Amino acid sequence: MNKRLFRTQFNQMENIEKQVLMESLAARYDMTFLGLHTFDRWGQSCTTGIFKKDGREFVFVPGDTVTLGWEQFAVGLNQESREELEYLFREWEMERDPEEMIRESMAPVRQAAIGPMLVGRELEEINWEPVKMDDPRLTVHPDWLKEFRDFAWSDSSSLTLHQSARIERTEKGFQICIYNHTDYDALLAMLENRGFSLPTADEWAYLCGGGCRTLFPWGDGLDYSMRLHWFENMDEDENRPYDMEEPNFFGLSIAYDPYMREVVQADRLTTCGGDGGCNICGGLGPFLGFLPCSPHCKPEVQEDNELNGDYDFYRPIIRLENYD
């Protein structure tokens, strides 16, 4: 394997060298190279290549050998996070050591060798398929069409008929989707057919945390100055992204919404980066609500292989296994 594809050597390369390397990757994988970009966040940075293929953007992520998992604070909880947990413990009438409680949700500490890869920058929906209004799978349901017509005259921005159909208001009119029931094996087969894979749980932890030893990429506690999904009134500036959704040090939008579980490659349906909103729905507050977004959180093995389009999302990757 080409050593230049690993983080230490890659970060030491001049940009002109990186440009040539990225152009060769684009040619090999039939992608459009959009250029080099520096991503600098939470104490880590990487100047790397951005690519486009089939309407989606990819970024080159160099390989590395890193420590993953969590067993103790590297810095310690900040005051706000400690106060939030102490309040919950009083409400529950229980005495707990925060570190001990958090450790129960974390994967064990381990060393992992992560190979270089091209990684989809955004999470993608699985079950929803865009269609036209005259699609026969829609027109056989006059009750759906009536609800769509009522929606068109309303002030709402979207309407979802549970695991059936969805309509959203856009600048160009309306976007209609139908829901296709699918399972984990079908998703893997679809991706393989297109030359893609899913990251493993270890690869996902690296993409999310970059080998950080703190609980989150930015530290051991929650940063309450950030705009967080589900805990921030965004009416004043609806188009401004939530802070955690902004690209990380690899240029990826990852682990920013606990309701969005990211499907990873495993023996059966396994997810990282969220719990489907269970902690938030349970009223556990921001810290425990976002704890499943930690890169070190235990991967969640689901009860069956049926994918849920409301909570399950995927990120295509290409492993550069034989590149020299």
TrEMBL record:
Name of the protein: Sulfatase-modifying factor enzyme domain-containing protein
Top-level taxon: Bacteria
Protein species of origin: Faecalibacterium prausnitzii
